[in-house]
């Protein structure tokens, strides 16, 4: 085997290895907490790179101090209209939700009231951390709070952005060396 053939073979192998290992580094998770948000009703609320928007039915959602922590709740504690919001990235990009604190913060209300986060009903669930593995690469998360007496709350939403994935530096270096080897092998052949 000639030197130029060996250089091409090594370069091709390194380039293939670089492509095969070109995984992405996941963006770190961020916990969206309502502790720094202003207390009271809102129609839109910005939390870092994320935004909660009022869906437009029933009561306005609210941030209230419950048990020493600010939490998202249904603002009207005297009717059954409820509050609905969507969580999305400000830039419209995809994100994932791996968990949140959700559930009843008081006595369990009648079955006419409910709390739904991303399609899961927490009607008879005590306020506690919830883990999700099905909310990946979404562009919006729907949260509905239909209660009487501010019985349901959401807090500490764990999100990670899908838009921030970047190739690992070692993979790029391996791919670059492989392509350089291929180029040198081709140049020597000419």
From TrEMBL:
Segments forming domain Ice-binding protein C-terminal: 166-188
One Pfam family it belongs to: PEP-CTERM
Claim: Mitochondrion is one of the keywords in the record: no
UniProt keywords, alphabetically: Signal
Position of the signal peptide: 1-27
InterPro entries, A to Z: Ice-binding_C
Name assigned to this protein: Ice-binding protein C-terminal domain-containing protein
């Amino acid at each position: 085997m000639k030197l130029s053939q060996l250089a091409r073979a090594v370069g091709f192998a390194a380039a293939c290895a670089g492509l095969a290992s070109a995984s992405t580094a996941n963006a770190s998770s961020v916990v969206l907490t309502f502790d720094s948000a202003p207390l009271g009703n809102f129609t839109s609320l910005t939390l870092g790179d994320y935004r909660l928007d009022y869906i437009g039915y029933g009561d306005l959602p609210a941030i209230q101090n419950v048990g020493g922590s600010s939490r998202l709740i249904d603002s009207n504690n005297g009717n059954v209209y409820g509050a609905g919001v969507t969580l999305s990235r400000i830039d419209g990009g995809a994100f994932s939700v791996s968990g949140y604190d959700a559930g009843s913060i008081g006595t369990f209300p009648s079955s006419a009231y409910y709390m739904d986060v991303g399609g899961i009903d927490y009607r008879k669930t005590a306020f506690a951390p919830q883990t999700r593995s099905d909310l990946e690469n979404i562009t919006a998360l729907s949260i509905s709070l239909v209660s009487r007496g501010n019985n349901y709350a959401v807090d500490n939403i764990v999100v990670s952005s899908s838009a921030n994935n970047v190739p690992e530096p070692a993979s790029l270096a391996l791919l670059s060396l492989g392509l350089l080897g291929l180029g040198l092998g081709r140049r020597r052949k000419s």
